[in-house]
Amino acid sequence: MTKIISNCLCVDISSEGKGVIKNGKDIIFCDGIFPGEKADVEILYHRAGVYFGKVRKLYNLSKDRIQPRCKICTSCGGCQYQQYSYEAQLRSKTKRVKEALSRIAKVDTKVLPCIGMDNPYNYRNKIQVPFNKDKNGKVKFGFYKENSHIIMPIKECAIEDKRAAPILWDIKLLLEEMNIPCYNEDSGKGILRYVLIRTSHHYEELMVVLVTTQMNFPGQRNFINELVSRHPEITTIVENVNNRHTNVILGNQEKVLYGPGHIKDDILGLTFEISASSFFQVNPIQVEKLYTCALNLIDFSKKEVVLDAYSGVGTIGLIASKNAKRVISVEINKSAHKNAIENAKRNDVNNVDFVCADAGEYISKSDEDIDILIMDPPRSGSDETFLSTVMNKKIKKIIYISCNPETLARDIEFLSSMYKVDYVQPVDMFPMTAHVETIVGLSLKK
Ligand code: SAH
Fold first, then answer.
1. 437 within a domain of the structure (yes/no)
2. CB-neighbour burial class of residue 171 (10 A; exposed 0-12, middle 13-18, buried 19+)
3. Which residue puts its alpha carbon closest to atom 13 of ligand 1?
4. Most exposed residue of 57, 84, 201, 286, measured as fewest CB within 10 angstroms of its CB?
5. How far is CA 64 from the centre of its chain?
């Protein structure tokens, strides 16, 4: 039997961007409702001590509620904030960082207002969409409905680079014209599974990756020729084969079908090569603000030894190397490590050493004297081995860049007996979503 609770007041937003409703002692998480709004809420399920609900009727609309640009934003799950004004999004992200630091790290400190974008739409340089067929045999592409594998067709996405949608539409037409079958998850049959598009912000370069179930699918040459003639902005096409029954998009086998197989882009004057599977920051405009704020915290005098831990393809360490004596970049992923070495060569950088290792394992065995630590771990944060070695080594300054305020706060709590927080700056790398990136400057207590 459906259970509806009427007249619920939304009091906050959760870290996943869901409205938080208090009903007596119970907490209900609910999509599409913002603080100050009221709704009749249908209870869907109970998990880990909280209820999850769905808005049945909304009243008391927030003055921060706006018309979303995308019609499917309420069901796609990618943009939790499209119905929330951009000012309110930034306010909410600043508040989330402040609260995580105070609640988890027990640090009450000034948090600078989250740095936003002038135009917070169409920023994403990496677009990946599943392809499939509808009941009538028409090819469809779009996004998976939240927590499902149902494709919701979409005309264009509000946060992705505008160059992507016209290419996706022509791929759909070509598949239909040439009778190239899309992959069917249930039967495991068909050819095209996903299309991934990567765009360059600084160069007129664009990569299309066709994720298929078999190398050299029938009609491939014609398909490529036709696609490139309709879209001369495509500078390279790569085929990636993934025939495993998995949610992971890319497989291990790759073949360049057109152009050089990679594109390049710049961050703060350095050039980076991006291949189909490389990690690269998805917001090319905000990444420059993020790195500038982070590196401004360091008083460089060309004498510093900097450790860039969790370094990806080496971007921030390579930029820092211009003003430091030496940089050591540590990254666990082999292909990112290889890209980083190539990126150093490409930019004529000679004072960075690249280590492919677990950051904690590296630092606990190393006898280097490190002056400054820049760390940018994945969402799960860092670990005790790494952080306790940093404390043993008494590294004077830490710049912690994080995409998850909760694990950031947990790690700062761990460091807090020896380090004090000097600076907290959230940066909006992912407008329209609930995600937030934060830079924290920490210094060794006297
Ligand atoms: N600093 C980079 C990348 C940040 S993403 C940038 O700004 O682009 C985090 C990186 O940490 C990923 O490249 C991931 O492969 C790496 N990583 C994850 N766990 C790690 C570990 N235990 N040790 C070292 N690197 C790790």
1. yes
2. buried
3. 312
4. 57
5. 25
For the annotated catalytic residues, the residue numbers are 403
Mutation to probe ligand 1, out of 310, 319, 338, 385 (largest number of atoms < 8 A from CB)? 310
**Is 105 in the same domain as 133?**
no
Tens of pLDDT, residues 88-146: 999 999 999 999 999 999 999 999 999 999 999 999 999 999 999 877 888 999 888 87
Do 137 and 117 meet the contact criterion of CB atoms below 8 Å apart? no
**Distance of alpha carbon 114 from alpha carbon 124, whole angstroms:** 19
- 391 occurs within a structural domain: yes
What is the whole-number distance in angstroms between the Cα of residue 164 and the centre of ligand 1? 27
- Mean pLDDT on 162-178: 96
CB-side neighbour CA atoms (13 Å) of 353: 10
- The answer to whether position 69 is within a domain reads no
Indicate which CATH number applies to the domain containing 295. 3.40.50.150
Task: For ligand 1, say whether the CB of 383 is within 6 Å of any of its atoms.
Answer: no
- Residue 169, ligand 1, Cβ within 6 A: no
Are 292 and 404 members of one domain? Answer: yes
Residue 330 CA, ligand 1 centroid: distance in Å = 8
Q: List the CATH number of the domain containing 14.
A: 2.40.50.140
Cβ–ligand 1 contact at 217 (below 6 Å):
no
Buried b (16+ CB within 10 A) or exposed e, 223-242: bbebbbebeeebbbbbbbbb
Asked if residue 331 has its Cβ within 6 Å of ligand 1, the reply is yes
* CA of residue 328 to ligand 1 center, whole Å: 14
- 146 and 260 share a domain? yes
What pLDDT does residue 187 have?
83
Q: Can you read off the two tokens belonging to residue 436?
A: 């937030």
Short-list 260, 180, 169, CA closest to 212: 180
CB 36 less than 6 A from any atom of ligand 1: no
| Neighbour count for residue 387 (Cβ, 10 Å) | 22
Residue 171 CB less than 6 A away from ligand 1: no
Q: Which atom of ligand 1 is nearest to the CA of 308?
A: 1
Nearest to 236 by CA among 273, 215, 205, 193: 205
Q: Picking from 22-26, 107-111, 220-224, 368-372, which range would have the lowest pLDDT averaged per residue?
A: 22-26
What does the chain come to in residues? Answer: 446
Ligand 1 atom 6: the closest Cα is on which residue? Answer: 312
Whether 42 and 36 have beta carbons less than 8 Å apart is answered as no
